[in-house]
Amino acid sequence: MIGIVDYRAGNLTSVARALDSLHEPCIITHDSKLLDSASHIIFPGVGAAGTAMANLRESALDGHLKRWVQEGKPILGICLGTQVIFDRSEEDDTPCLGIVPGEVKRFPADLREGGERLKIPHMGWNRVSFREDHPVFAGIPAEAEFYFVHSYYPAPADTTRVAGWTDYGIRFCSAVARGNLVAVQFHPEKSGRPGLTLLANFCRWGGNNAQ
Amino acid sequence: MLSKRIIPCLDVRDGRLTKGIKFKENVDIGDPVEAAREYYEQGADEIVFYDITASSEGRTIMLDVVKRVAETIFIPFSVGGGIGTVEEMRRVILAGAEKVSVNSEAVKNPGIIAEGARAFGSQCIVLGMDVKKVPASKEIPSGYEMVIHGGRTFTGLDALRWAKEAERLGAGEICLNSIDADGTQDGYEIELTALISSHVGIPVIASGGAGKPEHLLDVLTRGKADAALIASMVHYRTHTISEIKNFLHDHGVKTRLQW
């Protein structure tokens, strides 16, 4: 059973529907006991960092998330779920969970590519250069693109934890991997077949990747 | 680098897919869920649904369509048409849509953009604009006027001014439809699209007038659009999405070619 963490952040049902299509049983809940009994945790979310952290603290899920990371349960962060695992976010100047050292920054306003001014949010399909050896990213073609929608991006302190890079005016970290934790900035549940491959890989992953 | 998005637009009336010309003469062309699945498999980057139903019974049917679409395709999709309150937005989002689009309702009550953005985030809120070319005047300096109620009511509102105001209020994207070009298959309104796109910092989807792949190439380059809406071209099966994407790729426009 896959546990999807419900902290009132955005549309969690789209992750559940993608898992349904993969015939992976899942539950959307804020009940930490039910999440304790899940084999894997997905921590999704869209919205603002400040509200997300307030909801996590209020429901005491912040402590449980840290514990699940320590206990070695396989965890997948998605979008806002990925951003709040860092130390802090520039969005509303929010202190976050501090599970992975680093910050979440806003894309600079004057971002350019090939002379054209880039728009913010970074919204649409873009490539991710994955670190090849990770089981969660296995079988994803190099040319595959993923759906992004965000104005802030993760900047890990230790770039050896970066598992995927994406170019949008700057090169930013679109995936991190550390032990039993994988976190991605894009939306695998909305990225067609490559996204479903990633989710299926995660559901089969034991979380005991070397590092 | 972002790919330019190709977005089929499905008009839905009472749960059925329809296509009109200049907002009139709607004909039934099939099941929207089946069409969405087909376009997803052809490589659509996103799908837009416009609910042109008037009755409340039709709206309930639409929510069921949204739910079935969300179970079938795994790319983003938006729903618009008659959505004017946060509660109506919530229903559509809970049924499985990523984005909601507001159009006439936002012109009448601009506050709905800010309320929606606060409740669900700017990325959820698409401003739909129906625009008609008019002689430039003091009131309409850009020469493009906002029209509402499916193209029937002129508002006296300048399209460029409204686009900037909607961005300020928190819209995350603009879907820009030229009424003059809509359904003609003679090409997008390039000047209008370039004007709006170069004056806002949020993505602009060009809409209205697509008849052949050259039209998309034009609006995604000269028109500075971030995405292009298509309807007749694919509904009548004169083109496939993958064929359009290959054409754009061959002409130097980055599109998503693998799915």
Notes on the structure:
- The complex is a heterodimer of chains A (211) and B (259).
- Chain A is an alpha/beta fold and 211 residues long.
- Chain A has 6 helices and 16 strands.
- Chain A has helices at residues 13-21, 32-36, 49-58, 61-71, 80-83, 192-204; strands at 2-5, 26-29, 40-43, 75-78, 86-89, 94-95, 100-106, 112-113, 116-117, 122-127, 129-130, 145-150, 152-156, 162-168, 170-178, 181-184.
- In chain A, strand 8 (112-113) and strand 9 (116-117) form a beta hairpin.
- Chain A is globular.
- Chain B is α/β, with parallel strands linked by helices and 259 residues long.
- An 8-stranded parallel beta barrel of chain B has the order 1-4-5-6-7-10-11-12, surrounded by 7 helices.
- The mean pLDDT of chain B is 93.
- The A-B interface holds A 10-11, 13-14, 17-18, 20-21, 46-48, 109, 113, 118-127, 141, 143-145, 147, 149-150, 167-168, 187, 189-196 and B 1-3, 5, 40, 45, 70-71, 74-76, 93-94, 96, 98, 120-124, 172-173, 201-203, 226-227, 256-259.
Annotation keywords:
heterodimer; A: 211 residues; alpha/beta; Rossmann fold; eight-stranded mixed sheet; four-stranded mixed sheet; B: 259 residues; eight-stranded parallel barrel; 10 helices; globular
Short description:
The complex is a heterodimer of chains A (211) and B (259). Chain A is of the alpha/beta class and 211 residues long. Chain A has helices at residues 13-21, 32-36, 49-58, 61-71, 80-83, 192-204, and strands spanning 2-5, 26-29, 40-43, 75-78, 86-89, 94-95, 100-106, 112-113, 116-117, 122-127, 129-130, 145-150, 152-156, 162-168, 170-178, 181-184.
